[in-house]
Specification:
Helix content is 40%, strand content 13%. It is of the alpha+beta class. The structure holds FE2/S2 (inorganic) cluster (2 copies). The site of one FE2/S2 (inorganic) cluster (FES) has 10 residues, from loops.
Amino acid sequence: MSVSGRMSSKLRKSSQIDMAKEIVFTLNSVKCTVAQEISDQVLVHFIRDVLKLKATKFGCGMDQCGACKVLIDDQVRNSCQIYLSELEGKSVMTLEGLQSSAKFISLKNSFAHENAAQCGFCTSGILITCFSLISKNNHLSEKEIKEKLKDNLCRCGVHHKILKSVVRVMN
Ligand code: FES
Ligand code: FES
Protein backbone atom coordinates (compact mmCIF):
# COMPACT_ATOMS: atom_id res chain seq x y z
CA MET A 1 0.00 0.00 0.00
CA SER A 2 1.35 3.44 -0.91
CA VAL A 3 0.94 4.51 2.70
CA SER A 4 3.74 2.22 3.78
CA GLY A 5 6.30 3.84 1.45
CA ARG A 6 5.41 7.30 2.67
CA MET A 7 5.42 6.04 6.20
CA SER A 8 8.86 4.48 6.03
CA SER A 9 10.59 7.56 4.62
CA LYS A 10 9.00 9.94 7.12
CA LEU A 11 9.62 7.65 10.01
CA ARG A 12 13.14 6.79 8.97
CA LYS A 13 13.91 10.50 9.15
CA SER A 14 12.51 10.83 12.67
CA SER A 15 14.13 7.64 13.89
CA GLN A 16 17.56 8.85 12.79
CA ILE A 17 17.49 11.37 15.66
CA ASP A 18 18.18 8.68 18.24
CA MET A 19 18.20 5.09 17.11
CA ALA A 20 18.48 3.87 20.69
CA LYS A 21 15.18 5.40 21.78
CA GLU A 22 12.23 4.50 19.64
CA ILE A 23 8.55 3.77 19.93
CA VAL A 24 7.38 0.86 17.81
CA PHE A 25 3.75 0.17 16.94
CA THR A 26 1.70 -0.76 13.89
CA LEU A 27 -0.62 1.53 11.98
CA ASN A 28 -2.97 -0.14 9.51
CA SER A 29 -0.80 -3.26 9.89
CA VAL A 30 2.38 -1.41 8.84
CA LYS A 31 5.22 -1.22 11.36
CA CYS A 32 5.93 2.33 12.58
CA THR A 33 9.14 3.29 14.35
CA VAL A 34 9.28 6.82 15.73
CA ALA A 35 11.90 8.65 17.74
CA GLN A 36 11.27 9.49 21.38
CA GLU A 37 11.82 13.16 20.46
CA ILE A 38 8.39 13.26 18.85
CA SER A 39 6.69 11.06 21.43
CA ASP A 40 4.71 14.04 22.74
CA GLN A 41 2.99 14.40 19.36
CA VAL A 42 -0.74 13.71 19.42
CA LEU A 43 -1.79 10.70 17.33
CA VAL A 44 -4.41 12.51 15.20
CA HIS A 45 -1.78 15.02 14.01
CA PHE A 46 0.72 12.26 13.31
CA ILE A 47 -1.89 10.40 11.23
CA ARG A 48 -3.05 13.45 9.29
CA ASP A 49 0.05 15.66 9.03
CA VAL A 50 2.93 13.19 8.95
CA LEU A 51 1.34 10.15 7.31
CA LYS A 52 -1.12 12.25 5.25
CA LEU A 53 -3.99 9.86 6.01
CA LYS A 54 -6.95 12.23 5.95
CA ALA A 55 -9.94 10.02 6.79
CA THR A 56 -9.46 10.65 10.51
CA LYS A 57 -10.79 14.13 11.26
CA PHE A 58 -9.68 16.71 13.80
CA GLY A 59 -12.73 18.37 15.35
CA CYS A 60 -12.78 19.73 18.90
CA GLY A 61 -9.40 18.43 20.07
CA MET A 62 -10.99 18.11 23.52
CA ASP A 63 -12.31 14.55 23.75
CA GLN A 64 -15.83 15.78 23.00
CA CYS A 65 -16.87 15.16 19.39
CA GLY A 66 -15.52 11.74 18.31
CA ALA A 67 -14.48 12.90 14.82
CA CYS A 68 -10.93 11.66 15.47
CA LYS A 69 -11.83 8.10 16.51
CA VAL A 70 -9.50 5.23 15.60
CA LEU A 71 -9.10 1.69 16.84
CA ILE A 72 -6.24 0.97 19.21
CA ASP A 73 -5.90 -2.73 19.98
CA ASP A 74 -9.51 -3.04 18.75
CA GLN A 75 -10.78 -0.45 21.23
CA VAL A 76 -12.39 2.78 19.98
CA ARG A 77 -10.31 5.77 21.12
CA ASN A 78 -10.23 9.50 20.42
CA SER A 79 -6.88 10.00 18.71
CA CYS A 80 -6.73 13.66 19.79
CA GLN A 81 -6.16 12.39 23.33
CA ILE A 82 -3.43 9.84 22.58
CA TYR A 83 0.29 10.64 22.53
CA LEU A 84 2.70 8.60 20.44
CA SER A 85 4.49 7.72 23.67
CA GLU A 86 1.46 5.62 24.66
CA LEU A 87 1.57 3.43 21.56
CA GLU A 88 4.53 1.12 22.20
CA GLY A 89 3.57 -2.37 21.04
CA LYS A 90 0.03 -1.35 20.09
CA SER A 91 -1.96 -1.72 16.91
CA VAL A 92 -3.65 1.38 15.48
CA MET A 93 -6.28 1.11 12.76
CA THR A 94 -7.78 4.04 10.84
CA LEU A 95 -10.55 3.96 8.28
CA GLU A 96 -7.98 3.52 5.51
CA GLY A 97 -6.88 0.26 7.09
CA LEU A 98 -10.40 -1.20 7.07
CA GLN A 99 -11.10 -0.80 3.36
CA SER A 100 -10.65 -4.48 2.48
CA SER A 101 -12.68 -5.83 5.41
CA ALA A 102 -15.93 -7.48 4.29
CA LYS A 103 -17.66 -6.22 7.44
CA PHE A 104 -16.53 -2.69 6.76
CA ILE A 105 -17.63 -2.87 3.12
CA SER A 106 -21.13 -4.00 4.24
CA LEU A 107 -21.26 -1.14 6.73
CA LYS A 108 -20.11 1.43 4.16
CA ASN A 109 -22.69 0.17 1.64
CA SER A 110 -25.40 0.35 4.26
CA PHE A 111 -24.48 3.97 5.08
CA ALA A 112 -24.66 4.76 1.36
CA HIS A 113 -28.03 2.99 1.04
CA GLU A 114 -29.51 4.94 3.96
CA ASN A 115 -27.82 8.18 2.90
CA ALA A 116 -26.41 8.35 6.42
CA ALA A 117 -24.13 11.35 5.96
CA GLN A 118 -24.74 15.00 5.23
CA CYS A 119 -21.57 17.13 5.47
CA GLY A 120 -19.63 13.94 6.32
CA PHE A 121 -17.32 15.48 8.91
CA CYS A 122 -18.42 13.09 11.65
CA THR A 123 -18.71 10.06 9.37
CA SER A 124 -15.21 8.64 9.74
CA GLY A 125 -15.43 8.58 13.54
CA ILE A 126 -18.94 7.15 13.40
CA LEU A 127 -17.90 4.41 10.98
CA ILE A 128 -15.08 3.45 13.35
CA THR A 129 -17.51 3.18 16.27
CA CYS A 130 -20.06 1.24 14.19
CA PHE A 131 -17.40 -1.11 12.82
CA SER A 132 -16.30 -1.89 16.35
CA LEU A 133 -19.93 -2.50 17.34
CA ILE A 134 -20.72 -4.95 14.58
CA SER A 135 -17.38 -6.72 15.05
CA LYS A 136 -18.07 -7.38 18.71
CA ASN A 137 -21.79 -7.98 18.78
CA ASN A 138 -24.16 -8.50 15.90
CA HIS A 139 -27.36 -8.52 17.97
CA LEU A 140 -27.69 -5.13 19.64
CA SER A 141 -31.03 -3.42 20.17
CA GLU A 142 -31.61 0.08 18.76
CA LYS A 143 -31.38 1.42 22.30
CA GLU A 144 -28.00 -0.24 22.81
CA ILE A 145 -26.69 1.06 19.48
CA LYS A 146 -27.79 4.60 20.40
CA GLU A 147 -26.02 4.29 23.74
CA LYS A 148 -22.79 3.15 22.02
CA LEU A 149 -22.97 6.10 19.62
CA LYS A 150 -23.48 8.75 22.30
CA ASP A 151 -19.84 9.91 22.11
CA ASN A 152 -20.03 10.58 18.37
CA LEU A 153 -21.52 14.01 17.74
CA CYS A 154 -23.23 14.85 14.46
CA ARG A 155 -24.20 18.48 14.06
CA CYS A 156 -26.16 17.66 10.88
CA GLY A 157 -28.48 15.39 12.87
CA VAL A 158 -28.34 12.21 10.80
CA HIS A 159 -28.17 9.83 13.76
CA HIS A 160 -31.52 8.26 12.86
CA LYS A 161 -30.11 7.26 9.45
CA ILE A 162 -26.91 5.99 11.02
CA LEU A 163 -29.00 3.87 13.36
CA LYS A 164 -30.92 2.40 10.42
CA SER A 165 -27.62 1.64 8.66
CA VAL A 166 -26.25 -0.31 11.61
CA VAL A 167 -29.50 -2.22 12.15
CA ARG A 168 -29.53 -3.11 8.43
CA VAL A 169 -26.01 -4.59 8.67
CA MET A 170 -26.86 -6.52 11.82
CA ASN A 171 -29.87 -8.04 10.08
S1 FES B 1 -11.24 15.91 17.79
FE1 FES B 1 -10.97 14.27 19.17
S2 FES B 1 -12.84 14.15 20.27
FE2 FES B 1 -13.09 15.90 18.98
S1 FES C 1 -23.03 14.50 8.74
FE1 FES C 1 -22.37 16.53 9.23
S2 FES C 1 -21.64 16.40 11.26
FE2 FES C 1 -22.50 14.47 10.86
